[in-house]
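Entry 14. Structure prediction run on the chain below.
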Amino acid sequence: MKKFAVLALVCCLLGFFAAPAVFAAETKLTIWGRDIPDDSADHVYVRDLIKGFQAKYPDIKIDYVALGDPGLADKTKITMAAGSGLPEIFQTWGGSVMGGYADASQLLDLTSELKGVPGSAAAQQAMTWKGKIYGVAPFFAIAGIFVNEGIFKTNNLKVPATVEDFNAVCTTLLAKGIQPFACGEKDKWPALALYMYLTNRYGGDASAKASARKLAYNSDAFVKAAQLYQSWFKKGYFGATPLGEGYGDAQQLMATGKAAMHVTGSWMCAQYSNSEFTDQKLGFYAFPALKTGSVGGAADIMGMTDIGFAATKVAASKKDAVVKFMKYAMSQEACQSEPGRICSVPGVKAKSALTSQASAVFATAKTVTFWWDQDLPPSVTSPLNDTIQTFFLPDTDVKKSLSSFEALCIENMGAVKK
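Output returned:
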């Protein structure tokens, strides 16, 4: 009996000391992200997100893999990886690209867990596909006009109040030897935001109708917008060699005061507010409507998720840990480090005047149109940017270019429904 009692006591003690190890079992989440978690302005949120989450949940190990800039903008990296296995979480802008993974049954439905998480309706919409929520979007981006306030003040210019006003402003700037617009069309995608705005001003929700196949991409609004774009190129509004300059070159033109305006996303607020990057004083403004006959208005904004995270089916057995990460990513604590992006989380204050201006523009939005090259089917997004690039060639018949793109859309998305 004594031997049995001693043996029982030993077993109990072993069980007591072993128990904490069982309960403290570590859960591992692999996250593929675009941003490198370092001290640079563009990446500081991700850096502190990972650190903060690990401190709060030490039992959940984060294996963060940075794909680097432009990361997921190069869809081939993650598309190829989908064939060999996805991580539990990956960074995405949402829209149809994310939706493609959902349609392939590769994403984890988190609708019930995330539908009550505080955040902007637009951000939640971006992470929703066919009624199901697959992730969160702590930061949103909108396109607007970055304006060099010093150049405008010196030359007694006002920020254009209508699309037509650009002509007078740009004529004055060119006469002073200042490039009116920075662009960076060598990288193809930078010209999209301006084209989206012009198309909206001529045709309102033309892009939504076209993607729903109720309107062709070579219809009037698209053609007029392309023709105006091309006329601005011919006048030299984008400099002498816009096809030879990348997006980084465009940033440098703004940083050095060689260009007066840049129609691009609010993700540049941190960079353009950084005194180590530029000594120029820049402002952020909404893109205006046409003076006459405008269908779209200044409250029709182009934009989309700037940072989003989606969960995959790989995480099904780790749903609790995934939900903790998603909710932490949408917390004020996690988001307060971001210096420049528009935050989707209520109560997070903007860190710069530029971000405050961009947030104010976002607050006026009546509609938000997601980036076409992220919201359209992947089969037509690269050809879309290729098509827009042809507007920068003086001899291009833009209607023919758009007709070729429409033919591709018919092949991949179906014909326009009469």
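The first strand starts at residue 27 and ends at 33.
Filed with the rest of this week's runs.
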